[in-house]
């Protein structure tokens, strides 16, 4: 479990929507059972090239179909998993499913020019085994490390920067792509861009859905900075075609939002890929 002590700063934990402590305990128990029973699934949201609308990849987003409570969003169960010992297995489950789903899609279409992106939690980064575990999952799925992107938020880096840098560097050296997620929220993260081996910035939707000239300037500067650092830029939560065109003009590579597609189950991805990449079939 976690190595960090009791006095950690925890600025990014989302507030619980559930009310009392008993509720949290109940959810924790249920979550443990759900992992065993495989009630957790992945929904995949397309990430598209802003230049031509073509699919660049998919972000894997965890979903929990609770037998009694219905769908529980990750903003509720991820923090609970993080505070218990469940985030490790849960995160690895996501890597395992996402990479094997990607390989499965390719069996139907032939080789595809796409990646899968998986979110990692800070607690996972502090596990000394993470590197080996991810390597072995990639090996088992016969998935090229360059097809996998890992998304991390700043809280990951704050908790134990040296350990984080070590693990991230090793992962990056094997060819895995690393994205700084939710950029533009919380603490200023400019230092993180150079201190850690990120190759991708995901600009948070709160910055993307700009409604003032000032924010447009900030957005433009962030995209320019990322490009100057040779990083790929993804804009989250783009709300209109006009904004998409403007971001493309600024030099933003990718977009991910409901405008281009909501998170969908793996079999819907399969159908979409067959439609979008009809000519990649080799066998
Ligand atoms: P995130 O990594 O920033 O993922 C993007 C979130 O924005 C997703 O919410 C997605 O459904 C939502 N989104 C996408 N397009 C739009 C849009 O156009 N407008 C708006 N308003 N929202 C949009 P979701 O699936 O509820 O996930 C929330 C967060 O939960 C994720 O934020 C991520 O931090 C965390 N999460 C999800 N799956 C996992 C996982 O497997 N492991 C870990 N550690 N965290 C996860
Ligand atoms: Mg993400
Ligand atoms: Mg994000
Ligand atoms: Mg987010």
Automatic annotation (TrEMBL):
Residues 24-277 form the EAL domain. Coiled coil: none annotated. This is EAL domain-containing protein. It comes from Rhizobium oryzicola. The lineage of its organism: Bacteria, Pseudomonadati, Pseudomonadota, Alphaproteobacteria, Hyphomicrobiales. The chain holds residues 680 to 962 of 962 of the full protein.
């Amino acid at each position: 479990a976690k190595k960090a002590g009791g006095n950690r700063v925890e600025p990014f934990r989302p507030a619980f929507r559930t009310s009392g402590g008993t509720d949290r305990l109940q959810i924790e128990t249920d979550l443990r059972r759900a992992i065993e029973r495989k009630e957790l699934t992945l929904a995949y949201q397309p990430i598209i090239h802003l230049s031509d609308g073509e699919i660049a990849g998919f972000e894997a987003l965890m979903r929990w179909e609770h037998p009694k409570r219905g769908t529980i969003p990750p903003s509720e169960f991820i923090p609970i998993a993080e505070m218990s010992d469940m985030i490790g297995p849960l995160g690895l489950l996501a890597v395992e499913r996402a990479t094997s789903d990607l390989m499965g899609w390719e069996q139907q279409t032939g080789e595809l020019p796409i990646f899968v992106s998986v979110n990692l939690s800070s607690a996972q980064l502090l596990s000394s085994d993470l590197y080996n575990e991810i390597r072995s999952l990639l090996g088992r799925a016969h998935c090229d490390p360059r097809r996998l992107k890992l998304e991390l938020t700043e809280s990951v880096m704050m908790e134990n920067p040296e350990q984080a840098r070590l693990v991230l560097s090793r992962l990056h050296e094997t060819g895995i792509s690393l994205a700084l997620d939710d950029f533009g929220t919380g603490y200023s993260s400019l230092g993180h861009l150079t201190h850690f081996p990120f190759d991708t910035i995901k600009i948070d939707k709160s910055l993307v859905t700009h409604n003032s000239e000032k924010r447009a300037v900030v957005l433009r500067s962030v995209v320019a900075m990322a490009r100057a650092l040779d990083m790929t830029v993804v804009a989250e939560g783009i709300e209109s075609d006009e904004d998409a065109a403007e971001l493309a003009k600024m030099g933003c590579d990718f977009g991910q939002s409901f405008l281009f597609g909501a998170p969908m189950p793996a079999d819907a991805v399969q159908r979409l890929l067959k439609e979008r990449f009809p000519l990649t079939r080799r066998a």
